[in-house]
Amino acid sequence: MRVFVTGGAGYIGSHMVKLLGEKGFEVLTYDNLSNGRKEAVLYGHLVVGDLLDYELLEKTLRDFMPDVVMHFAAKVSVEESVKEPILYYENNFCGTLNLLKAVKKLGIGYFILSSTAAVYGIAQKVPVKEEDPTVPINPYGWSKLFCERALIDLRASGYPIKYAILRYFNVAGADPEGKIGQVSKNPTHLILRALKAAKGEIPYLEVYGTDYPTKDGTAIRDYIHVMDLVQAHLDVLEYLMKGGQSDVFNVGYGRGYSVLEIVKVVKEVTGVDFEVKYGPRREGDPPMLIADNSKILQKTSFKPKYDDIYTIVKTAWEWERKQ
């Protein structure tokens, strides 16, 4: 089976490519390398290209003719999206429209979309279910929600595509074999920033907001190991190919950790008591996001393997020490 992976040189996409390659899939990665790295693509071939370059995108798809498209390519910083909203709508939404246009033209039948819990905005209840209101509070979340809508509407128009939309919660960790992991010169994700503080690559870890309505005043998130996340993609693909209906799935563990709890775990795993400073909330950050993951657990064969915050941090730390 042939799988076309957009953003396959990036953090999550490269782990997906590795898993697909190990399972015997024929893989082609399409990535503009704005955040990805050639050396992270461990299987198949890499075409360096942008989703906004429609001619190259269509030609690449036509030459490869995949059975499945897995779409990871996107800009993902909430903070940056607030400052540069047009960039996010153009890159994430317009890029996805180009991809869907080519998919329809070539008659490709399966599509798995990388989405985000940011589409929920400030959740009215926790944990959040897939059918709960989607009212993003930042341009990143809106750009991904528009992508979801375009895919749903393509199916509703009569084009016989089968899709799964996976709403990720906070992805962290690294390949347990140590072959790939997260690489970022200016990371925004909490665990990676904490690890860089432990390494001394940044002088301290800044905690954004201590006045949230949570148990310790810091924001709470549901963290999922990257290898469980990419396995979920294979499990929903299997579900679709066995006759399952197109659907939206939360992908998380169903439990949350506050920023200060994560800081404590990182200090324990690394053995480094790095400095922590406290600042104001970042614009666009909700106080709490935890997944109700019952749908993916009930409908597919997905069974988390790395559901432990210490395992998540440990694999990320082992990778980070190699950098």
Comma- or semicolon-separated keywords:
323 residues, alpha/beta, Rossmann fold, UDP-galactose 4-epimerase, domain 1, 3-stranded mixed beta sheet, 10 helices, isomerase
Explain the overall architecture:
The protein is α/β, with parallel strands linked by helices. The chain has 2 domains: 2-172 and 223-251, Rossmann fold (3-Layer(aba) Sandwich); 190-221 and 254-322, UDP-galactose 4-epimerase, domain 1 (Alpha-Beta Complex). Helices cover 39% and strands 18% of the residues. It has 10 helices and 14 strands. The chain has helices spanning 11-22, 54-64, 78-83, 85-106, 139-156, 190-199, 226-241, 259-270, 294-299, 309-322, and strands at residues 2-6, 26-31, 45-48, 68-71, 110-116, 162-168, 170-172, 205-208, 220-221, 223-225, 247-251, 257-258, 276-279, 288-289. It has a 7-stranded parallel sheet with strand order 3-2-1-4-5-6-11, with helices on both faces. A 3-stranded mixed sheet has the order 12-9-14. The protein has a two-stranded parallel sheet with strand order 7-10. Helix 1 (11-22) links the parallel strand 1 and strand 2. Helix 6 (190-199) crosses helix 10 (309-322). It is globular and about 55 Å long. The model has no long low-confidence stretch (mean pLDDT 97).
Question: What is the topology?
Answer:
Blueprint: E1 2-6, H1 11-22, E2 26-31, E3 45-48, H2 54-64, E4 68-71, H3 78-83, H4 85-106, E5 110-116, H5 139-156, E6 162-168, E7 170-172, H6 190-199, E8 205-208, E9 220-221, E10 223-225, H7 226-241, E11 247-251, E12 257-258, H8 259-270, E13 276-279, E14 288-289, H9 294-299, H10 309-322
Parallel strand pairs: 1-2, 1-4, 2-3, 4-5, 5-6, 6-11, 7-10, 8-13, 9-14
Antiparallel strand pairs: 9-12
Helix pairs in contact: 1-7, 2-4, 4-5, 6-8, 6-10, 8-10
